[in-house]
Amino acid sequence: MEWFYSAAAALSALICLGITLWGGCYLVTGVMSWKRPEDYGWHPARTRFAVLIAARNEELVIGPLINSLLTQDYPAEFYDIWVIPNNCTDNTALAAAGFGAKVLECTVPVKTKGEVLRFAYRRLRGRAYDAYCVFDADNLADRRFLAEMNNAFQSGARVAQGYRDSKNPYDSLISGCYSIYYWMMDRFHNGGKAGMGLSAMVNGTGFMVSGETLERLGGWNTGTISEDLELTAQCVLAGERVHWVPKAITYDEQPLDYAQSVVQRRRWSSGTLQVAENYLGRVGGELGTPGRTLALTDLGTTLLIPAYQVAAAAGLAVSLLAACLGCRALEQVPAALCGTLLMNLAATALGSTLAAALVLTAERKWDRRMVGSLLVYWLFLLSWLPITLGSFWKKTTVWEEIRHTRNVAPEGFARERAAAR
Known about the structure:
about 10% strand; Spore Coat Polysaccharide Biosynthesis Protein SpsA, Chain A; 15 helices; 8-stranded mixed sheet
């Protein structure tokens, strides 16, 4: 039994070391997020944009997004707003046209957002657009979004991700946790990667990709349920860096309850696994390419996030086993189990809460209404474990609708736009 205990303790230490090294990589990324963002300068409006909005039953919320796009601080002749209704049972197309957007009805069967964007690209590719910007129907766009993307494009960026802010961080504990998560993605992931000269991650909405890049990639050829991560992988493998443009801001509506959250995060986890299965082999095969090792390694670590989550769960299980085996009497087992479990949970809670507090400070998002979400953020992250483990067992392969029915705007949004006029 002694050797069994020694083996369990050694395995637990090995897993802990791996997790620590992984965390160290993200610690470096987080530190680099304090580096001043790339300055794209000011450039006159020259980039012709097609703004794409894939919409499924978004009649009630699409109007404010279109209004925010129609009132951009960018010449109207340099961009078109295209709404692509798909699988709709409401009047999304009629509402979009009524608010002033162009409507491109999706006439082919589609199961994912990526398939909708592929359809739109094939229909629009001959219209001399320089770049495509993608939004979700429940978003709002800052009035400088297209101007900032033009600055980035004219500075040489061919793929770019903007800052994903939150419309409703104070609505519920869940929407607050989502908001913290995206602010962390903005600051520590995309901001940190940009500080290291690496690729940011296309994050589903509020991003730009040039027509030239799409032609190099053979069109809009994502086939997984995580078209954003897949596009990121395709770009990195093609040697194209995803630029970080924090001044191009999109406001996103966050889910309000846990059930919606599970549906969405299960889709994310399943999509990450799909992309990993399709692209990790290529990443590994090209790791020796001169000048690209760091970028490919970074992409690989991102694709392995579900494996990291499984390793964390396995590490906890092995730690509990080692604690039991280390007991000299059966009566000591419950105390050993509880002590080990509480110690791990306390470390998780403390680390997650401190990181969340840091991002609230760094991004100037402190508000007393965020205290509840700050305190339960570690539980939000911990709840991802069963979702990811379930995705290993059974993946989501079809996009499930999350219905948006509320026209909400971030505080001060209307006042800022009115003042700008």
